């Protein structure tokens, strides 16, 4: 199983185009979107190429391959533009190994407010715009960063899961930023 993970597009068509370009070339069979898809939010600047309707049109052909969760900037109006569900606060992905991914945006569930995780589950969220790939005492924690508004002097980034490893990669050049294997 190979999955691509992106978060915090915030309506940037150029970032969404790069995500789809990388998704198509990655060989991934699924695209996980961790919220804040179309709206830039009141605390963020308007991103380059802010075209939320075009972002929706770009993502919709991949509806059957997308698992998405709601971010704090997502709304029912956004859902009306999208052909895939994105209004749930979280979702689970069960791996063939029995390990589970808990997918959420990060504003409700995060490392400070844990969901009900079993030993070796993986908490995957965005929201902070800061990439993380680490092992905690009973679980793993992964954040792909942001494709539009990276923080911490890091490049825009996304995640890739393959062969038991989660990697944060630069959206610009594919360079590995962080990784964890289990």
Question: Mind explaining what this structure looks like?
Answer:
Its cofactor is a divalent metal cation. This is Phosphoesterase. GO terms for molecular function: hydrolase activity; metal ion binding. Belongs to the metallophosphoesterase superfamily. YfcE family. Keywords: Hydrolase, Metal-binding. With 182 residues, the chain is α/β, with parallel strands linked by helices. The protein has a single domain, classed as Metallo-dependent phosphatases (Purple Acid Phosphatase, chain A, domain 2, 4-Layer Sandwich), CATH 3.60.21. Helices cover 14% and strands 29% of the residues. It contains three helices and eleven strands; from the N terminus they run E-H-E-H-E-H-E-E-E-E-E-E-E-E. The chain has helices at 13-26, 52-59, 76-79, and strands at 2-6, 30-33, 66-68, 90-94, 100-104, 122-125, 132-135, 140-143, 157-162, 165-170, 176-181. The strands form two sheets. A six-stranded mixed β-sheet has the order 3-2-1-9-10-11, covered by helices on one side. Strand 9 (157-162) and strand 10 form a beta hairpin. The longest helix has 14 residues, at 13-26. The radius of gyration is 15 Å and the shape is globular. The protein starts with a strand and ends with a strand. The model has no long low-confidence stretch (mean pLDDT 97).
């Amino acid at each position: 199983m190979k999955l691509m993970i992106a978060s915090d597009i915030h309506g940037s068509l150029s970032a969404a185009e790069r995500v789809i370009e990388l998704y198509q070339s990655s060989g991934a069979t699924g695209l996980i979107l961790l919220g804040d898809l179309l709206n830039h939010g009141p605390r963020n600047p308007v991103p380059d190429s802010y075209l939320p309707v075009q972002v929706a049109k770009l993502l919709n052909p991949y509806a059957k391959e997308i698992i998405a969760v709601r971010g704090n900037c997502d709304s029912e109006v956004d859902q009306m533009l999208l052909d895939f569900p994105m209004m749930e606060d979280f979702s689970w992905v069960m791996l063939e190994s029995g390990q589970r991914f808990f997918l959420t945006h990060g504003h409700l569930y995060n490392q400070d407010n844990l969901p009900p995780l079993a030993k070796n589950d993986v908490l995957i969220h965005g929201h902070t715009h800061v990439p993380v790939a680490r092992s905690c005492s009973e679980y793993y924690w992964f954040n792909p960063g942001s494709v539009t508004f990276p923080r911490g002097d890091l490049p825009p980034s996304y995640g890739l899961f393959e062969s038991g490893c989660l990697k944060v990669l630069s959206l610009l050049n594919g360079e590995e930023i962080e990784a964890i294997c289990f």
